[in-house]
TrEMBL record:
Name this protein carries in UniProt: Intraflagellar transport protein 20 homolog
Species this protein is from: Saccoglossus kowalevskii (Acorn worm)
Subcellular location(s) of the protein: Cell projection, Cilium
Superkingdom assignment: Eukaryota
Keyword Coiled coil: yes
Pfam families, alphabetized: IFT20
Stretches of the chain forming a coiled coil according to its record: 79-117
The keyword Amino-acid biosynthesis appears for this protein: no
Keywords, alphabetical: Cell projection, Coiled coil
Length: 132
């Protein structure tokens, strides 16, 4: 009965017979909630550590990817440059070939002309020798 009278006034006894303002059930739930909150906070802290380490790994990886990307861009630009150089060199060689063909044709014409002149001179010499 004394317990009921104290309970009506808002006072309760716990397992250790200490006077409490809260009912023992609510007190126990409060303690459990406190422990769960501590566990939750600990898990959140652990999660933050994991996320932080994951972010560090991803940052390092992104830097490596960016570095490799720049290397690839440099290589691609170098390859394009080499291709353009080869095209320019090919055009130079084609121009040189055309020039050499023109020169060859000129030499053929000159050779034919010289052969004709030699033939005429040989005829002249033969006629000159025969007239004597």
């Amino acid at each position: 009965m004394a317990d009921e009278a104290l309970a009506k006034s808002g006072l309760h006894f716990d397992e250790l017979n200490k006077v409490r303002v809260l009912e023992p059930e609510y007190s126990q739930q409060t303690v459990e909630l406190k422990e769960e909150c501590k566990e939750f906070v600990d898990k959140i802290a652990e999660f933050q550590k994991i996320v932080s380490s994951f972010i560090d790994v991803v940052d390092k990886l992104s830097k490596e990817v960016e570095k490799e990307k720049m290397k690839a861009i440099g290589s691609r630009n170098l390859l394009k440059s080499i291709a353009k150089q080869r095209e320019a060199q090919q055009q130079q060689f084609q121009a040189l070939i055309a020039e050499k063909k023109t020169q060859l044709e000129r030499y053929r014409i000159q050779y034919a002309s010289l052969l004709k002149e030699e033939s005429e001179q040989n005829e002249f010499i033969e006629q000159f020798i025969l007239q004597k």
